From TrEMBL:
Origin: domain of life: Eukaryota
InterPro entries, per database record: CRAL-TRIO_dom, CRAL-TRIO_dom_sf, CRAL/TRIO_N_dom, CRAL/TRIO_N_dom_sf, PITP/CRAL-TRIO
Coiled coil: none
Domain CRAL-TRIO, first and last residues per copy: 188-333
Natural source organism: Linnemannia exigua
A Pfam family matched in the record: CRAL_TRIO
PANTHER family, per database record: PHOSPHATIDYLINOSITOL TRANSFER PROTEIN CSR1, PHOSPHATIDYLINOSITOL TRANSFER PROTEIN CSR1-RELATED
Protein name: CRAL-TRIO domain-containing protein
Chain intervals for the UniProt region annotation (Disordered): 41-97
Skewed-composition ranges (Low complexity): 62-97
Length: 437
């Protein structure tokens, strides 16, 4: 089977909708991840053993990697996975053709598994890998390079800090962080007609000097990570509305635009459903000529320009659209509710946190073991039927989601969407929007 640089046929490429070829490429990506992760146990030189294919154009024609499942004991590794009482399964390392060591990317073997599962959160584990495969046109080697670079960025930029610290703590470290929320510069409200959460960005409120550049980046990541909680399966993308009303050149921030583009293209691929640039004034078009060449064609294809408020109702149902827009019926006005005393007390309960963490990790190891069996099921005589294993993986992914959201309040600070008058984020991981019509 030829792999790499293929398009995703409509209606395919997601959990539950993969073609047979796509399924085999997903298996290969899992196999490469296991090969790297297991190299800590099967090789003495992790720099040589922890490697992935490097050449992004030399991937066609190779066979799907094969990994044999078995159970073993292992030494503790770094990160919070290192305290696991459950022994992880190991696998024989699969040889690859042209390789680059993890050291070339800047990751260690010990960092790989925590980086992977800290990114998965409550999602189906396959969905994360599929995002990177679709973004790289099903070229497994390119997808691996891309996902590992994203993991490196998440570690370097300490994305876990944005999730674990309160807004007040982040504001104390990054000047102007909380100001973004107080102004209502960007917020999430409601779903569009495709079920995607809608992120509103009021560009006229942005003044580059009002906050440190790092504070703006951290706030952007905060919105991204909070928004992920509001994306409900099978939906996998968000709708962004850049409200350009009142925009002037004093609001323009080219460095921030570059950072945002990089986030969607490299760190959160396949997360953007549609980006609406609403009511752009004449002065914006000179700016657009500078920005447009920076955009990946896939991202650019998702941009839509709207001139009137009523055009927004073509994407967002009128009952869900704030009535500040002509045609909108939702009597919504954004209001920032500050951090409440005691809202993060559960994060101090180390005993409960450790118990829930161990329960979640046990399911994680079980999912990995089942995935190894899934990879091998067509290669080993007498293997269980593939559809049986797939059903078990699907059920286990649901258990993982339940276990993650039980753990969530013990490892993650509450946010605006937990403490609003009608909380959006529920304890079971669902999101519920309240509209005032």
């Amino acid at each position: 089977m030829a792999k790499g640089d293929i398009q995703t046929p409509p209606g395919t490429g997601h959990v539950g909708t993969m073609t047979p070829d796509q399924k085999e490429l997903l298996k290969e990506m899992w196999a490469q991840i296991f090969s790297i992760a297991d190299s800590n146990n099967t090789a003495t030189n992790s720099s040589d053993a922890a490697s992935i294919a490097k050449e992004e154009t030399a991937s066609a024609g190779s066979e799907t990697a094969s990994v044999k499942s078995k159970t073993t004991t292992t030494k503790k590794s770094g990160g919070w996975f290192g305290t696991s009482k459950t022994a992880p399964p190991a696998a024989e390392e699969t040889p690859a053709s042209t390789k680059v060591s993890l050291a070339d990317i800047g990751l260690s073997v010990e960092q790989l598994r925590p980086a992977l599962w800290n990114n998965i959160l409550g999602d189906h584990p396959d969905s994360l890998l599929l995002r990177f495969l679709r973004a790289r046109k099903w070229n497994v080697n390119n997808g691996m390079t891309m996902i590992l670079k994203a993991f490196k960025w998440r570690l370097e930029d300490d994305i876990e800090e944005v999730k674990s610290k309160s807004e007040d703590e982040l504001d104390a470290k990054y000047r102007g962080f909380r100001l973004q929320m107080e102004l209502g510069k960007s917020f999430v409200h409601g779903n569009d007609k495709e079920g995607r959460p809608v992120v509103y960005i009021n560009v006229r409120l942005h003044k580059p000097a009002d906050q440190d550049a790092k504070a703006l980046e951290k706030f952007t990541i905060y919105v991204m990570e909070v928004g992920r909680l509001m994306i409900q399966p099978p939906v996998e993308t968000a709708c962004l509305v850049f409200d350009m009303t009142g925009f002037g050149l004093a609001n323009m921030d080219y460095n921030f635009v570059k950072f945002l583009v990089q986030c969607f293209e490299a760190y959160y691929p396949e997360s953007l459903g549609i980006l609406i640039i609403h009511k752009a004034p004449l002065v914006f078009w000179g700016v657009w000529k500078i920005i447009e060449p920076w955009l990946d064609p896939v991202v650019a294809s998702k941009i839509r320009f709207t001139r009137s408020d009523k055009e927004l109702t073509e994407v967002i149902d009128a009952n869900h659209l704030p009535n500040k827009y002509d045609g909108g019926k939702d009597q919504f006005t954004y209001q920032y509710i500050p951090v409440q005393a005691g809202e993060n007390d559960r994060m101090k309960d180390a005993e409960t946190k450790e118990r829930l963490l161990e329960e979640w990790k046990a399911l994680m190891w079980k999912f990995e073991a089942l995935t190894r069996e899934w990879i091998d099921c067509k290669k080993v005589d007498g293997a269980r039927a593939e559809d049986v294993i797939e059903n078990e993986r699907s059920s286990l992914a649901k258990e993982l989601r339940v276990a993650y959201f039980k753990l969530d309040p013990y490892i993650r600070s509450r946010n605006l969407y937990h403490r609003s008058e009608h909380p959006v984020l529920q304890s079971d991981g669902t999101s519920v929007w309240t509209y005032k019509n």
